[in-house]
Amino acid sequence: MSCVEFTINGKLCSVSGSVPIETTLFAFLRYTLGLPGTKAMCYQGVCGVCIVNVTAKRPTTGTIETFSVNSCLVLVLSCHGWDITTIEAVGNRLDGYSEEQTRIAAFNGTQCGFCTPGWVMQLHSLKDKNLSMLELENSFGSNTCRCTGFRPILDTVKSFASNPTPELCKAVKDIEDLSVCMKDKAKICRQKCSSVSSDSDWSIVSDVKNANEMIVIRYDDKIFYKVFEIDQIFDIFRNYSSEHYMLIDGNTGKAAIKNFEYPPILIDISNVVALKQHSIDQNLILGANISLEDCLILFRNVAVDREEFRYLDVFAKHLDLVAHIPVREIGSVAGNVMLKHMMRSYQSDVFLLFESVGTIVNIRSVSGTQSSLTMQEFLEFDMNGKLIVNFELPPLGANHIIRSYKIMPRNQNALAIVNAVFNIKLNSGTNKIEKATIVYGNISGHFIHAIQTEKYLQGKNIYCNETLQNAINILNREVAPDDDPSKPSPKVRRKLAVGLFYKFILSITPANLTNSKYHSGGQNLTRPVSRGEQHFQTDSSLFPLNQPVDKLEAIIQASGEAQFVNDIPTMPNEVFAAFVLSTVHNGDVDVIDASDALEKNGVIALFTAKDIPGKNSFIYPGYQLQTEDEEILADKNIKFYGQPIAIIVADTQDLAVRAAKWVKVTYKNVKSIPPVLTIDQATKDSTRVVTGDVLTSKGKGEDVTKVIKGTYEIGGQYHYYMETLSCLVVPVDKGLEVHDSSQWIDLTQSAISRSLCLPESKVLVMVRRLGGGFGGKISRNVQVACASALVAHKLDLPCRFILPFETNITIAGGRLPTQCIYEVGVNDEGKIQYLKAVINEDCGCSQNENILSYSLGGFGICYNRDFYDVKTFNVRTDTPSNTFARAPGTMEGISSMENIMEHIAYELHKDPTDVRLVNMTDTDLPILIEKLKTMADYKNREEDINVFNKNNRWIKRGITLNIMLFPIEYYGNYSALVSIYRGDGTVTITSGGIEMGQGLNTKAAQVCAYTLGIPLEKVSVISNYSFVCNNEVFTGSSIASESVCYAIIKACETIKGRLKPLNDELKNASWLELIQEAAKREIDLSAKYMMTDMEPDLKGYSAYAVVALEVEMDVLTGSFQILRQDILEDVGLSANPKIDVGQVEGAFIQGCSYFTKEKFIYDKTTGKLLNNDALHYEVFLAKDIAIDTRTYFRYNSKNPKGVLGSKSVGEMGICTAHSIIYALRKCIVDSRKDSGYDISKWINVDIPLTTESILTALDVNPSEFILS
Predict the structure, then answer these.
(1) 455 Cβ partners below 8 Å, 6+ apart?
(2) Are residues 771 and 690 in the same domain?
(3) SS3 call for 64
(4) Which of 81, 738, 956, 1191 has the fewest CB atoms within 10 Å of its CB?
(5) What is the C-alpha separation between 801 and 814, in angstroms, rounded?
(6) Alpha helix locations (H) across 632-739?
(7) Which positions of the chain have pLDDT values less than 50?
(8) How far is CA 1223 from the centre of its chain?
(9) How far apart are the C-alpha atoms of 1079 and 1070, rounded to whole Å?
(10) Coil, helix or strand for 654?
(11) Do the domain assignments include residue 227?
């Protein structure tokens, strides 16, 4: 055969050499079949937006199963025999929507909606498998969401469980009742997606003719083989050497390989049944290519059935921590250990598990020779022309005790910081160790066994302090981690290695031989099923205002029908573009040689700075907060490693991205100096420092009894919007139509016009929605838009420019790192008598978007600032220009001041809340504090935690209460155009506010319907256009929704004013009668209003929140979990409480992620960003959020200064997330007290509080690792 065959949504597809060999299933779905519901972001199988379902025969079990896969990893040529279901077939506007789609919409599980189809598809693959709530919650490490905070998504997921709570059952019934009420407006699709083509007799279920015939697809310089028998593999081996071929099963391993390129020969072995079987003689014979998920299930079952393989239950639990279900479904055991063979430093969990029990790997060579090797021997074995056939796992007696551990940056879907397996053979009569096996991962490329410790333990009784301490001392000496800047420090990895050994010993030591305080140290943190509750008021007399309705776009987001930039159908002759990035952090471009790239078929053109006809800048100095030009493409004076210097154009996105790496660049005038990457480095050079706003004191108190000094420092944060920066530019008539992922249409239009010397009137910008923004698409997207416009202008062809994650995180900047150096004098009560502070912010390589005034505005705003002296400075570093990020400046200012309050309280041994209250001038926050203390049962929980910590040495808990006052100021101008149609009286709105998940469109429709007095169903919100919102400000600062709603009210009032005489004349006319008569009389039924920040009835106001947060920490590993969060926020009279709850919870989790996980790691010599992919830049996932989430809105709190009584909510939640710092600090302090440290003095803890930061702050001495 010379083609592969499969079905997609029931229709037969046949793919041959006309499709490039590297084409992924995702690219085929999107660009060949025109199915845009499936998204892509990371291209590593991490984010989950690309998930689709597959129904196929599993070679291991022989059964037909439905499972999920990452379409961005799977080659389309590997899909032979599959029946693939995409989001389009799960439910849609024509056939009706599925239960998964309607529920995730109704549970408010969507915000920007870009990730939603991936969640739905993962759920769709699991919902009929009779899983419990706990099992379902554990099954979504595959999916990322930056908006929602996960809680409503998990509620959706759990509603499909075999054991849902009564509350979930009631919610589901309400959803179903509503769907019946709405009839065809939200039809529920009850159909089962067919696995058989409706128009073909070909089916994955039936036997395919010539099923074992090798498939060969030839290209000019490449060949794809699909084999079905082992002998077919060796037939190919005889013709090619190892450097020319690659064996493919799931193709998931490429995600772990930097700068991956396919070799000329690809051999798909995924259907070689002989490699996916298992049997048991004396050993468990495991086929090499059994999938990790099938392996997990097999291990679980065999452990139950066979006493001698009881240890496999430990292995199964460990495999559950490897990647996630879609990867494990097709990723193979052999593939995982081959990654270790290729990259010795790779922390393969499978290798570690197998090595711990003496697994034998059987390898066959092309000559037929069989080699049986240990796992360590395998690492040194030349695999050229050889194939792993199977693994032999031995039976072990009951006297073997095995435990495995994997310490990760987050709870799921991450590579190990350190992983370990301990296997001891114990003489139960003497309690002496007959044999010890201790293996570690991620120590170094050559370190596997703790050989010296293993030898020492032999013949020893481990259940005594002397033996344990001797073993620990030996282990501490022999574990020598390598120094890799992309990994936690050697010191911390050694701490983990030793701590895990002690944890293992505690876990196996009889309770009567250990101090009861140490028992919990032998356990891992366990997470039960999460729960949540939300409390808010509604007033039905105001509906649809204040009504908790679903987002307008929710159901089409859940069905993949909501259109984002890259979902716009492809056009004839369309081209794709990618940036070529600099590989130096200073100097000039000398020669750009693209000859190798341009020789490749499909690579079209290269553009550099010299090709830009106008101003080489994507910034327009003079616009709000824009002060200096930034180059679209650098030529002279490169400012950071990774700065775009050229654009490569190709006929596919994948080819453009790959071709960019083939371009050769030489540089000149490069200075041999290290890059300046930190605030401390930059402040030493006065030319890099710019003075900002100041706050001058009005005096100084006279009761100074203590002076406190400190430094608070927080780093950058990548926005992690799920839709990377994207733009499609189409030449139309004499101008350009620009489809941009932008929060600021005006800047995009002006910058393109300026760079191409085109009149602005010839540049039409359109934005339908964004897949997340968080401030990162206010200006940074404009670089991509200008580059896309340049290509379209030069080639007179449509140009699609979608940044890969690696480029996006490298060039797009992020939250400004901030440093606050302070000295504060206080009295005995903690009241501030004077405060001197310097706030330094790292703006990156440009001074654009200076947010120092916001930082100063948020700094201590709820306190008496009369005695404050605060200076602010921006510093330049050799990093990409930083930019707005959720609550820019304000969050940094608030968290800086709250750190000072915590420091004061600590030094004075006082409750931080008391210190806050004695300094507070605001009158609302004290009320909210007392209210939340009562609702959260704060005092009793605090007492319980004190008791718990006294009784537990190695598990600690902490609870804290923190506050926020967020100053709201109206800023800029926003328009709204309201149009009413005479045919049916329906209404459309287009405005200057961009929908990016915050619910702006839904609130706009609610306010419009409320103002006009019509049903909400009559109002639609359409795309944003530059000719409607011309000359307007960006969507940001949390006030866009309110501002747009204000403009809508004014526009509606204009129309109502025009209609009033007619309405009075007609008296009791219906809405439709009124509109139709008005149209007959040619009354203008459209009105536009532009709101400005000078509206007399709009005044600034304050938003408030109080948070109680409880955490639990494993002192031995630095791991933690959030046990409970209680948030009380004043949102005024919420226009839509359901949406506002989502904003509060989502922002809070984004902040918790920032303060504990997220950091940029740069090479200190080159300035290169090292963690520039989704595998290494970790954010919170579903199992990282609080186990118990409770959100309350303040009752009876109509805002007299806002729009219709509401308050902004979009940014506030992140400004209370600093609470997690202080909850974790309490755990650290309690442990340090047990360690004997002087805890009277404040210690600095590095932020984010990663495993490294926590273990460093705990600073437990190995001598403390005893049994009693």
Answers:
(1) none
(2) no
(3) strand
(4) 81
(5) 20
(6) 653-660, 679-683
(7) 181-186, 190-207
(8) 23
(9) 14
(10) helix
(11) no
Domain count, the chain: 7
Same domain? For 1083 and 1141 the reply is: no
Write down the H helix ranges in 599-650: none
**854, 788: one domain:** no
Separation in Å, CA 1051 to CA 420, 955, 979, 988, 1046: 65, 59, 9, 12, 9
One-letter identity of residue 420 = A
Quick one: which of 1222, 1217, 1216 has its CA closest to 958? 1222
- Same domain? For 1162 and 1247 the reply is yes
Assigned domain for 192 exists: no
- Is residue 547 included in any domain, yes or no? no
Residues 630/848, Cβ–Cβ less than 8 Å:
yes
Structure token pair of residue 783: 């670089």
Nearest partner of 633 among 656, 609, 664, 605, judged by Cα = 609
259, 238 in Cβ contact below 8 A? no
Shared domain check, 1257 and 1139: yes
Best CA proximity match to 965, nearest among 890, 913, 1019: 890
Residues 115 and 47 sit within 8 Å (Cβ to Cβ): yes
Gap between the Cα atoms of 822 and 836, Å rounded? 6
Given 471, 498, 514, which residue is the final one in a domain?
514
Q: Pick from 871, 282, 807, 350: which is nearest to 581 by CA?
A: 807
In three state form, how does the secondary structure of 479-516 look?
CCCCCCCCCCCHHHHHHHHHHHHHHHHHHHCCHHHCCH
Residues 734-751: tens digit of each pLDDT = 999 999 999 999 999 999
Q: Residue positions in the annotated binding site for [2Fe-2S] cluster?
A: 42, 47, 50, 72, 112, 115, 145, 147
Binding site residue list for Mo-molybdopterin: 743, 774, 886
Residues with a known catalytic role: 1211
* pLDDT tens digits for range 488-519: 999 999 999 999 999 999 999 999 999 999 99
Contact 1204, 545 (CB under 8 A): yes
Report whether 290 contacts 60 (CB < 8 A).
Answer: yes
Element (H, E) at 216: strand 215-218
Mean pLDDT of the residues in the chain: 95
3-state secondary structure of 840: strand
Annotated binding site for FAD: 332-336, 406
Nearest to 644 by CA among 580, 725, 585: 580
Among the listed residues 383, 509, 375, the one whose alpha carbon sits nearest the alpha carbon of residue 441:
375
Q: What is the pTM of this model?
A: 0.96
